[in-house]
Specification:
By secondary structure, the protein is an alpha+beta fold. It has a single domain, classed as Roll (Thiol Ester Dehydrase, Chain A), CATH 3.10.129. 16% of the residues lie in helices and 35% in strands. The chain has a 5-stranded antiparallel beta sheet with strand order 1-3-4-5-2. A hairpin with a 5-residue loop joins β4 (119-129) and β5. The longest helix has 10 residues, at 21-30. The protein is elongated.
Length: 147
Amino acid sequence: MGIDRKFIGRESEERSVEVEKGQLRLFAKATGETNPIYSDEVAARDAGYPALPAPPTFAFSLALLAPAEGGSLTEMGVNIGNVLHGEQHFDYRAPIHAGDTIRLKSRITDIYEKKGGALEFIVQETTAHNQHGTLCVAARGITVVRR
């Protein structure tokens, strides 16, 4: 039995996460980012940033720091042991910096199958707005479920 398509269009509650400089430094180190603007506040300010900027792809971590409750994989009947991260796309609109409060909202935009139902795909879009209401990132992720 496949994932019920009734979840298409399901939106999460809005949730918030505060971006901390320690998180940004740790992410930069974990991803091998050596540019000092991501770890040194003086270097960031000298480069014109108001605070440490978020390294590329840090936006993915925002959803991990503030997971959505509505439309969870468990709620959809998905065994987490059968899940693969299939794809991730970021449309960057405005920078994210240490000290920002980011509001996230997610929506399941599609559920489809391939290989005769052996693989199911859940497409989720998430927007991230800062404390000023500015859209910083629109992200699209695809989760693959092996049956």
